[in-house]
């Protein structure tokens, strides 16, 4: 007996684009998490100061000062906690990416819900102050959520 062929999903191309995007987010967060582990038993504050100097930012300015103050309070245990959190986040993104790539209905719903829960927060952030990064994140997430809503609605009707 031959392998049973999977029925073609009309949204397969779009789902794979979203799957790639989710997988890329997971990979980026995983890399950042592992990068943080490189600072265990090292002076994170000195590295933060060097980063601020490298970009020629005034360390006395508001946001660089917050960044430097936070870097001074980071412990090895906190770095481990953030790295473990990044690992869990990446696993979730990779599972979603796999499910979308394989055109699983659970992944379509999961992507819709997990992306949709950020929209109110992103809207709030944009209302607090419009910046290109905030608007871009909201727009990209909005397009992904709208697309998955269409996919879920169409597949539910069949």
Features:
158 residues, mainly alpha, 7 helices, 77% helix
Shape: elongated
Helix content: over 70%
Report the sheet-strand fraction.
under 5%
Count of extended strands: 0
Mean pLDDT: 88
Q: What is the helix tally?
A: 7
Radius of gyration: 20 Å
What's the order of the H and E elements? Answer: HHHHHHH
Structural class: mainly alpha
Q: Terminal Cα separation, in Å?
A: 29 Å
Q: What characterizes the major β-sheet?
A: none
Low-pLDDT windows of residues: none
Tell me what you see in this structure.
The chain has 158 residues and is an all-alpha fold. The protein is built from seven helices and no strands. The mean pLDDT is 88.
Give the structure's gist in a few sentences:
This protein is mainly alpha-helical and 158 residues long.
Topology summary:
Layout: H1 12-37, H2 44-54, H3 62-72, H4 76-101, H5 105-116, H6 119-128, H7 132-157
Helix pairs in contact: 1-4, 2-3, 4-5, 5-7, 6-7
């Amino acid at each position: 007996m031959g392998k049973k062929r999977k029925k073609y999903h009309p949204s397969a191309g779009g789902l794979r684009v979203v799957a790639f995007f989710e997988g890329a987010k997971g990979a980026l967060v995983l890399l950042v998490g592992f990068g943080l582990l490189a600072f265990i038993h090292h002076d994170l504050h000195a590295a933060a100061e060097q980063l601020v100097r490298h970009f020629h930012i005034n360390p006395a300015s508001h946001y660089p000062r917050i960044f430097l103050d936070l870097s001074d309070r980071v412990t090895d245990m906190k770095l481990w906690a953030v790295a473990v959190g990044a690992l869990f986040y990446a696993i979730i993104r990779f599972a979603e990416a796999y499910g979308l790539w394989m055109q699983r209905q659970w992944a379509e719903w999961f992507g819709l819900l997990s992306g949709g829960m950020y929209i109110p927060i992103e809207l709030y952030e944009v209302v607090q102050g419009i910046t290109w990064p905030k608007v871009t994140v909201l727009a990209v997430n909005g397009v992904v959520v709208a697309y998955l809503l269409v996919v879920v609605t169409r597949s539910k009707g069949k």
